[in-house]
């Protein structure tokens, strides 16, 4: 019997560890689901995938919360249901991490914008939850005269029993490690380009005489390096120097009129279109000289490239954090499974305890990364909640209904191929799907 060589104290400790980790993860999943559902401040593209993954994490924790309750009652509904949840939803988290990495690939090399990335989500849902569903459901009905039911005592909980060890590798740990390697390959593939662009950004920030940072373009040495930026329904500040584009992720503190700007890095022309704003146009009695126009175009190009590269780097850092959490989860548990495969019907207490610690915590790690990448939104949401609890008048909604759709930067990354010349907001939206247009409000506290 699985776990037969472990003492009762170790088995009880495993149960306690699993349940404590499951509670933390369930709270983390609920935090992600609730904040994403009720606050548009959290609607970054990478958070959308975390939101979908949280449902799988939640179902995994329903299974891991049962711990060893049914391991001696194999034929009961409780044991079979727990095993089904573990087999289906535990590896789904790895598949969602691959989906995040694939979004990075589509953004860097195929210039997918936010709308096209959202269209991929239905395929991600089918891929991440559909593929594990097939073996998970099939194993419920598998039974042999010699080994009994396929789902049985797996020490930590009900899952594929030790008599079917080969299926643990073939349909669980094997595919998970294939996914990990594919994810690693994507990051290695893009890592060199990310590092090179990031190095250019540092040089650009350190010295005004540094070369202009190049925009992240298709992997095409002959692509035309032009960048157009479209900002719609964004906040503006009237000043003596004209319009000030705030850095990504900042929330303005004063009401500003809306405007729409088109910035072109083509040295031959640069245009700015204004809608509904009160910003002042440049004096018409001072015609720009050719040298001034070139300087302005160069400055606009630098700013656009800087914003695009910095945003893409921010998204990549988020996805890499999820990949790191994936490794932390699966390395100890995989080592435990290899040990049990090599040493038939034997278990190692330390490896079992490590697996009990890391496997139920997937949702908790995802919640921590979700908070870290949405810290400004967390602070604003917490402030609003505390204001409501203290009985003050609730503040006006800082995130209007069109927050997620209109408050985005759009980057056109041109290339020789006409079909690649598409509007792409992915570079900046991947990092920040939008900035608030109405962060100012009337305080009546």
List keywords for this structure.
12 helices; disordered C terminus; two-stranded antiparallel sheet; 4-stranded antiparallel beta sheet; alpha+beta; 445 residues; 10 strands; 56% helix
Description:
- The chain has 445 residues and is an alpha+beta fold.
- Helices cover 56% and strands 8% of the residues.
- It is built from twelve helices and ten strands.
- A hairpin with a 2-residue loop joins β6 (238-239) and β7 (242-243).
- α2 runs antiparallel to α9 (362-373) and α7 (290-342) packs antiparallel against α8.
- The protein is elongated.
- The model is unreliable at 208-279 and 400-445 (pLDDT under 50).
Helicity level, as a percent range?
Answer: 55-70%
| Order of strands across the main sheet | 8-5-9-10
If helices are DSSP runs of H or I spanning 4 or more residues, what is the number of helices?
12
H/E element order: HHHHHEEEEHEEEEHHHHHEEH
Range of strand content: 5-15%
**Which shape, going by the Cα principal axes?**
elongated
């Amino acid at each position: 019997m699985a776990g037969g060589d472990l003492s009762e104290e170790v088995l009880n400790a495993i149960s306690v560890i699993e349940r404590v980790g499951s509670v933390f993860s369930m709270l983390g999943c609920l935090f992600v689901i609730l904040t994403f559902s009720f606050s548009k401040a959290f609607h970054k593209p990478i958070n959308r995938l975390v939101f979908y993954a949280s449902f799988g994490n939640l179902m995994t924790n329903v299974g891991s919360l049962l711990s060893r309750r049914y391991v001696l009652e194999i034929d009961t509904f409780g044991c079979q249901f727990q095993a089904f949840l573990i087999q289906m939803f535990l590896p789904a988290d790895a598949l969602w991490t691959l989906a995040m990495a694939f979004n990075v690939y589509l953004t860097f090399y195929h210039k997918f914008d936010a709308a096209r990335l959202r269209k991929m989500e239905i395929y991600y849902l089918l891929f991440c939850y559909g593929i594990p569903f097939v073996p998970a459901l099939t194993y419920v009905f598998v039974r042999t005269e010699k080994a009994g039911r396929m789902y049985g005592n797996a020490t930590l909980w009900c899952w594929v029993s030790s008599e079917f060890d080969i299926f643990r590798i073939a349909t669980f740990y094997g595919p998970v490690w294939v996914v990990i390697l594919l994810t690693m390959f994507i990051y290695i593939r893009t890592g060199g380009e990310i590092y090179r662009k990031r190095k250019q950004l540092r040089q650009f920030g350190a010295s005004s005489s540094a070369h202009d940072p190049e925009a992240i373009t298709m992997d095409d040495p002959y692509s035309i390096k032009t960048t157009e930026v479209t900002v719609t329904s964004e906040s503006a500040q009237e000043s003596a120097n004209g319009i000030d584009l705030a850095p990504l992720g900042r929330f303005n503190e004063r009401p500003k009129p809306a405007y729409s700007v088109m910035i072109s890095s083509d040295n031959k022309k640069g245009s700015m279109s204004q809608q509904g704003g009160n910003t002042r146009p440049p004096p018409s009695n001072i015609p720009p000289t050719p040298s001034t126009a070139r300087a302005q175009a160069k400055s606009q190009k630098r700013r656009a490239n800087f914003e695009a590269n910095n945003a893409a780097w921010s998204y990549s850092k988020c996805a890499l954090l999820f990949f790191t959490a994936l490794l932390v989860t699966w390395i100890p548990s995989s080592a435990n499974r290899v040990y049990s495969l090599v040493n038939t019907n034997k278990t190692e207490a330390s490896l079992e305890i490590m697996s009990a610690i890391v496997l139920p915590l997937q949702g908790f790690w995802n919640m921590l990364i979700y908070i870290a990448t949405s810290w400004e939104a967390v602070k604003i949401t917490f402030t609003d909640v505390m204001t409501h609890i203290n009985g003050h008048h609730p503040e006006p909604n800082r995130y209007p209904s069109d927050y997620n759709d209109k408050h985005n930067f759009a980057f056109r990354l041109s290339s020789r191929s006409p079909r690649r010349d598409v509007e792409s907001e992915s570079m900046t939206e991947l990092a920040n799907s939008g900035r608030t247009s109405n962060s100012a409000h009337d305080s009546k506290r």
